[in-house]
Amino acid sequence: MNIAFCELCYVSMITDTQKQIAAAKAKLEALEKKAAAEMSKKLTTLHKEVGFATRAELISALQGLEGGAKRGRKPKAAAAASAGKAKKRAKRARITEELKAQVIEAVKAGEKGAAIASKFGISVPSLQNIKKAAGLTKTRGSK
Hints:
Layout (H helix, E strand, L loop, with lengths): L1 H48 L5 H11 L10 H7 L14 H12 L4 H8 L3 H10 L10
Helix pairs in contact: 4-5, 5-6
């Protein structure tokens, strides 16, 4: 009889523990919902609390604090304002046979790659392509 009673007590303890866990989870869920509602309410009036007329003004001011490059599209107003200040792209260099010959001479004279590229207004990869076509580069296996 004692064994049956102890098993019943053990099962009862487990059931009570499971009920307490379920109650704690329900309470946690209710608290999370309450916190989310309070946060949402606070965010809807935040712009007024910090002195801005609209949320858009607050967002614009916060984005202005970012120092680096911004991801994504600019709002239409910001895009229109910066349209006049757009940077012009560099003009693409025309690599003629004459230019190739000058580059090859500079390489043979022992000038450094970046200096040659900047001197002739071409990119370093373009310089490498010219050197490769002229046979002035080494393959990986050769010394």
